[in-house]
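Quick board copy: two proteins, each given as sequence then tokens.
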Amino acid sequence: MSLVLEAIRANAAARPNGPALTGAGVHLTWPDLQREIEAAAAWMQTCLRDLPPGAPVAVALDNGPAWVVIDLALVFLNRPSLPLPPFLTAAQRDHALADAGACLLVGPSATTTDPISAVVAGAVVSARVLSGAEKLLHAGTAKITYTSGSTAAPKGVCLSQAQMEAVAASLVETIGAEFAGRHLGVLPLGVLLENVAGLYPTLLAGGEYHARSLSDLGFANPFRPDISRLADAVEAVDASSIILVPELLRGLIGFLAFTGRRLPSLKLVAVGGAKVSPQLIAAARAVGLPAYEGYGLSECASVVAVNTPAADRPGAVGRVLPHLRLETAPDGEVMVSPRPFLGYVGAKPHEGALRTGDLGVVDSDGFLTITGRKSNVIITAFGRNVAPEWVESELLAQPEIAQAAVFGEAAAGLCALIVPSRADLPGTALEAAVAGANARLPDYAKVDRWRLVPPFDPSRGELTGNGRPRRAALHQSHRDFIDQPA
């Protein structure tokens, strides 16, 4: 039995008037949510009647109560789901549908010619039968997640419901159910970090989940967010917790610092997806944002370690969740066990510890610090190994710098591509910002030269879906600067 569905059932009996799910003008109590899940499951069962029993159902909906209900209805049916985050390109989306062998696509009902439609949690949605070939998935697959990857053909990660709910239950245990309160979903629900680490723990802990559309949150253009709308949404729902990627945290810090506004309802702002400097955490707390860094991977169902109000060490990513074990290889690579995921679509079942590709150290108190990606490590002309993420985090801790990417393979010194936080910043301010970052770095990791560049452009493949720089694409765009001799 699903822990999340069991929690909904228990709350429906014990708290019949308690709020469970809100958004898009919809306010569902726990019994309402249970009824919506069962009704959506009955509708989808009809849609799936003549389709292969093990084939996944793809979900391409905006954030909202309907997404939540469809997701949980698929859990109820024991049918694999394939969430399609909005940042996937058309090629990546088509690849995911074909690669996973999806048999049905649930999306918004745009026309009256939709073959099958239903009202789910107040929204009209449609189901379209897909004609792709059936694929053999790993036994027990409940969800297949495709990240943006570095190509048009990212790998599908197969996860069981037990694996995902183990993460959610560990988060409730580690953070404390008292922090459930009102959680506002800020990231796309199609991303595991929001689905498994935001939605599921809130429901397990008996909190209220607010699912607003991404445009309502200020993300009509996800790479040019309207931070004022995000702040308005947090204030409007009196949110007690949110999950952000570092770029959104940086934007929210700047907005609050500039306007003087505060968001006192927030008790927990979890931050993940890329390295966060201690200075950024300190800046967040200075404007009243209780920010705590975490670390995870899709292959671990989103979260591996997290700082909490009770156990916090800025600069580290926190202690490993209690259901996992972590060790480091002789070369520093972080390895996670036991069996965090089932395997990739079309590949052999995963066995043994997961080699994450991340470099890290665990201190005597059990806090994990991630120092960089094994594949990204720069070896300078002096033979020193430098993780570019480390240097970039120091650059990004400077309020004058919005984006940065560091290079220097086989070079005598490091160089950086820098996007200023404002177009009208004088050169002296940026020089001071780079100097400020360098002051916190040893000589071998200092930035010797830098170039101002336009914002990294996802349409040119320069950013991943969660805002990480794609180094190969940036190198190609600025080869003349990066590769110039010392």
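And the next:
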Amino acid sequence: MQIKISNKLISYNNQPFIIAEAGVNHNGRLDLALKLIDAAKEAGADAIKFQTFKASEVVTSFGEMADYQKKNINKKTSQQAMLKKLELPDDFYDPIIKHCHKKDIIFLSTPHGNFDSVNFLSKLVPAFKFGSGDLTNIPVLKYAAKFNKPMILGTGMATLKEVEQAINCIKSVGNNKIILLHCTTNYPCPVEEVNLNAMKTMQKKFVDILVGYSDHTLGVQVPLMAVLLRASVVEKHFTLDKKMKGPDHKASADPSELKQLVSAIRNIPIILGDGKKRPTPEEIKILSNVRKSVVAARNIVKGQIIKKSDIAIKRPGNGLAPIYYDKIVGSVSKKDFHLDEFITL
């Protein structure tokens, strides 16, 4: 199974597709959005993702903030009022997309505002990425799937049955380009709630679909473990500064952490290697310096029966290998050997 997003081919055999999730961490400012693009590119991410919505399309006027949002912004207000300040204005898209092209990083945005957001983004993004809150939003998923773009789905809060329903609705319109992201909808997510084995469960259950991981934990350990478990996509929230005001900054990676994560992910296949057990070229160069040989522990004269006390095992290793040690003991010396001289057969 492989899916192409822009110029990137995603499969279990390729390097993981890395999405730097800017989300709403631009705080409604174009200058911050552009700096987030720069930081994502500098870190080496394949794509940067924002969110497209009008607050009134996402939540009712009386909808409450989630507990983590109340905690992170240290303020109690309606969810709609909070989101209103985090909208990405329509006139931001042109400079943002142009800057992404200039930096050679893929622009993505979540159609958080239902049908209108899908329509708005349909000509701007190479793939649709839906957050976990929309996994059960079957009408919108089905509508977006008709554009025949790759569909990336967050699966936080979901049961396996709900995931399957989302997959079936997308496939029902002939779109089989689906990527599932295991995640936990908690910001930050404590390690005891990660449950990476659930990602493996989805990989086994949905064999014709790619599965990856969207990370909400602090640090880089969990997403690296996800890559070792064959995550085809890794998404990580990031911010320019964790101390900025907003609901997601505290649970996001800063630019240096994002760069560390991307670098570590890129090194994983190099570190794993091809699996063949053999000395490396550099090891071959030092092999004789660190391996050992059988040598004379004292002067040995011709005709002498060699005892254990007459021989020793020392570096360098370009003499007779220690495997011959027992064969030498008890044999008769055919020549004189001086102290530390290699014993030869």
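Board note added afterward: The longest helix spans residues 255-272.
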